[in-house]
């Protein structure tokens, strides 16, 4: 019996192994098919000049690529495919491209397919950049591509004491990963300062001047050319990340403002604290700040009012709001404790903003267009998981969303608040990895709204008051007694003869009363004394 069970278990394992082999073979076939499809669609493009600038002066990596493309084939080409290693693409917050000649933004679409380089055993994600016009054979065009990501930076060492110097490591490529050959290519890396621990000196030529390390120029690079690049450098800036952020925007046509409430969690993403944290050492004069932070600043709209800030404990008294007109209002605050490596702090803040700053009415389409953005707080702190909830006024219909940014999830629902009868339409948006540059791509929420719905709440309130008073009036006229009401009973009381003497229950007293003469009792007139003489005390 035990042998039979063992054979059955082995059979199941064998079938599972066959399934895994089949899935892997299907993936290989699919990758080859995608390679062929993308290769055929890419056309005969050549990158004549590629200048790549990697900015490491901040804690969020930004790559700016200037490229000149030439159509060396026989057919027009309108799509330029941008490659990025899968490990990097998973942590990319923005891929933006524009045409140099016109300055117009180009449509960038991430493709679900991948391209595999069998020689380097590397899989690339593909982004489709659509040119403004088909590029005819022999013609050239220039593009600017901006990429912001967090994949290439990591702290080294990974643990530091309280006042240790932080070092970061950038790991990337000296060559631009590309599906196309390049005639001439240069990569420049900009550091926070001129100090470095180490950096790659291959492939030559490599030159360092001040804060910039230049790789190249390299000539006649084939497609999929790669060369590892590594830079180890000190960084005094604190790497911050927002693990989760939620923004709740409630629109009120009746009040004429938008109420914004936000919840965020910030994390120190640098080297973790080694040992114990000692607050006393931070209070010693002339002591370096170290690898900790507790001062933050949030930019709010310049028209923001009714601003509040609190955390899990309650109100934070170290907040300060100042207005840098006409740019923005700045909310400065100090966390209740200093953030060391790996520590987190969460808070809630909110404000009200005039509706005219966000909402526009289009008479041609009879639609309202609301302009909102995903939550982003600090210039170099990406948001790993961002939520945006927009609550439209009661009666809004035909809701539509449009944006140039890629959204991971969009859901619609109904939100009920005070004195709501049919509920308010709600749009909930989610996106993973939001960088500050995404503020350039607002989300437009469009809807129709009949102004007669503004009278809905007064009618509901008036109806509720009438119903309340009507109910109170009806209740006051109702009988809640357990027995039926019969009215007061009529009782007969015997009338005694006033001429009869009163009879006491005491026998002796009744005899005395009976024997007493029926002479009238003399009465004294008011103001007349009983005798003309006053009795003196102690004399007869």
Descriptive report:
This protein has helices at 2-42, 86-89, 279-282, 456-476, 507-515; strands at 45-55, 61-71, 77-85, 92-99, 107-117, 122-135, 140-149, 153-155, 159-160, 167-173, 182-190, 198-199, 206-209, 212-221, 228-234, 240-252, 257-268, 272-273, 293-300, 305-310, 320-324, 328-339, 344-354, 359-362, 367-372, 383-391, 397-402, 409-415, 424-434, 443-448. It is mainly β and 540 residues long. Among the domains are: 21-234, Immunoglobulin-like (Sandwich), CATH 2.60.40; 240-274 and 339-457, Immunoglobulin-like (Sandwich). The chain has a 7-stranded mixed sheet, with no helix packed on it. Strands 20-23-17-16-26-29-28 form a 7-stranded mixed sheet, with no helix packed on it. It has a 4-stranded antiparallel sheet with strand order 8-10-15-12, with no helix packed on it. The longest helix has 41 residues, at 2-42.
Strand order of the largest sheet: 4-7-2-1-11-14-13
Low-confidence stretches: 1-34, 508-515, 530-540
Radius of gyration over all CA atoms, rounded: 43 Å
Could you describe the largest sheet, including whether it forms a barrel? Answer: 7 strands, mixed
Q: Which structural category do the helix and sheet elements fall into?
A: mainly beta
Number of helices: 5
Indicate the proportion of strand residues: 35-45%
By CATH reckoning, the class of the domain at 21-234 would read: Mainly Beta
CATH topology description of the domain at 21-234: Immunoglobulin-like
- The assigned CATH architecture of the domain at 21-234 is Sandwich
């Amino acid at each position: 019996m035990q042998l039979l069970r063992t054979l059955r278990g082995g059979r199941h394992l064998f079938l599972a192994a066959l399934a895994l082999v089949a899935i892997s073979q299907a993936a290989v076939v699919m990758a080859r098919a995608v390679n062929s499809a993308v290769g055929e669609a890419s056309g005969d493009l050549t990158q004549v000049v590629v200048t790549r600038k990697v900015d490491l002066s901040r804690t969020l990596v930004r790559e700016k690529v200037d490229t000149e493309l030439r159509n060396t084939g026989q057919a027009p080409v309108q799509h330029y495919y941008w490659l990025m290693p899968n490990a990097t693409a998973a942590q990319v917050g923005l891929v933006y491209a524009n045409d140099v000649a016109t300055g117009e933004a180009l449509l960038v679409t991430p493709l679900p397919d991948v391209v595999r380089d069998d020689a380097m055993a590397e899989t690339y994600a593909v982004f489709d950049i659509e040119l403004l016009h088909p590029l005819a054979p022999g013609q050239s065009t220039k593009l600017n591509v901006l990429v912001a990501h967090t994949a290439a930076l990591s702290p080294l060492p990974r643990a530091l004491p309280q006042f240790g110097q932080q070092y970061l490591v950038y790991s990337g490529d000296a060559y631009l990963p590309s599906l196309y050959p390049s005639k001439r290519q240069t990569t420049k890396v900009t550091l926070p300062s001129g100090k470095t621990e180490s950096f790659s000196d291959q492939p030559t030529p490599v030159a360092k001047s001040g804060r910039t390390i230049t790789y190249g120029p390299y000539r006649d690079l084939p497609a999929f050319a790669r060369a590892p690049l590594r830079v180890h450098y000190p960084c005094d800036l604190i790497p911050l990340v927002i693990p989760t952020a939620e923004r709740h925007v409630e629109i009120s046509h009746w009040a004429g403002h938008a109420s914004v409430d936000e919840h965020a969690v910030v994390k120190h993403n640098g080297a973790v604290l080694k040992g114990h944290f000692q607050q006393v050492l931070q209070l010693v004069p002339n002591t370096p700040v170290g690898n900790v932070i507790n001062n933050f600043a949030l930019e709010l709209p310049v028209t923001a009012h009714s601003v509040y800030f609190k955390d899990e404990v309650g109100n934070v008294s170290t907040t300060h709001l100042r207005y840098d007109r006409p740019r923005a209002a700045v909310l400065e605050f100090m966390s209740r404790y200093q953030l060391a490596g790996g520590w987190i702090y969460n808070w809630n803040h909110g404000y009200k903003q005039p509706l005219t700053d966000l909402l526009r009415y289009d008479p041609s389409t009879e639609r309202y267009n609301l302009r909102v953005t995903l939550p982003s707080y600090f210039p170099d702190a990406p948001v790993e998981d961002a939520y945006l909830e927009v609550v439209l006024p009661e009666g809004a219909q035909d809701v539509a969303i449009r944006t140039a940014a890629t959204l991971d999830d969009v859901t619609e629902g109904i939100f009920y608040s005070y004195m709501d009868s049919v509920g308010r339409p709600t749009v909930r948006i989610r996106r993973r990895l939001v960088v500050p540059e995404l503020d350039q791509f607002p989300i437009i929420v469009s809807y129709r709204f009949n102004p007669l719905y503004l009278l809905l709440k007064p009618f509901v309130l008036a109806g509720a008051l009438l119903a309340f008073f009507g109910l109170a009036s009806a209740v006051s006229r109702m009988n809640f007694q357990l027995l039926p009401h019969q009215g007061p009973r009529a009782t007969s009381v015997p009338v005694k003869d006033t001429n009869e003497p009163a009879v006491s229950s005491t026998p002796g007293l009744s005899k005395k009363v009976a024997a007493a003469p029926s002479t009238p009792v003399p009465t004294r007139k008011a103001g007349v004394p009983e005798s003309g003489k006053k009795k003196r005390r102690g004399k007869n």
